[in-house]
Amino acid sequence: MTVRTYTGTLGPGLLLVQDSAQPYVARVYRTTNVMIRGAMLFSVGVFLALVLNLLQVQRNVTLFPPDVISSIFSSAWWVPPCCGTASAMIGLLYPCIDSCLGEPHKFKREWSSVMRCVAVFVGINHASAKVDFANNIQLSLTLAALSIGLWWTFDRSCSGFGLGVSIALLATLATQLLVYNGVFQYTSPDFLYIRSWLPCVFFAGVITMGNIGRQLALYDYKFIQEKTHQD
């Protein structure tokens, strides 16, 4: 607790209560901030899932059984909540890892860069559905190059690359299991039950949500810096 000299008529007791309340106020603020960030990331994930999955369904890349389609976006009801939850977890995890490593990510920290990252991710997903290549291998290699280019342009951190690859592999495995159990299917699968370019799209999505989460976490970081400076 900070020791301060107070000469006012109220005595030192009031100042003592104010100092002891500061950590509690900071914890409440950080908890509220995390909840708000999680809700915003969830909303972004749901929106992107609806839009991008609609494109995949319209191009007959992804096929859902007729009995599970229940929305105007031609998607199974569980897809948007799952994508929203994953987006919130990824967006909260990235700044947490940065903090644990002791090296806050500072590369291109502005919303214009984040919006460009989102646009590139949407473009990669769009290319996976609409661009016609001679074979899936060429398409996969092209999307892999674009995904790594997205990481290099908007991230360039080893932690971001490692998390992106790890989460993309886990998401690919989960998708394989879903397709294997008949929840949905891909047309012309060439990588077991899915398309070979799917890990590239997952990787680009992880980097994108990580950048959004890092940008939102800046407000919490600035608040802590201001409180530390004031104290």
TrEMBL record:
Mediates feedback control of cholesterol synthesis. GO terms for molecular function: lipid binding. It holds the Pfam family INSIG. Keywords: Cholesterol metabolism, Endoplasmic reticulum, Lipid metabolism, Lipid-binding, Membrane, Steroid metabolism, Sterol metabolism, Transmembrane, Transmembrane helix. InterPro entries: INSIG_fam. It comes from the Eukaryota. GO terms for biological process: cellular response to insulin stimulus; cholesterol biosynthetic process; SREBP signaling pathway; SREBP-SCAP complex retention in endoplasmic reticulum. Belongs to the INSIG family. This is Insulin-induced gene protein. The chain crosses the membrane at residues 34-55, 75-94, 137-154, 161-180, 192-212. It is found in: Endoplasmic reticulum membrane. It comes from Mastacembelus armatus. One of its GO terms (cellular component) is SREBP-SCAP-Insig complex. It is a multi-pass membrane protein.
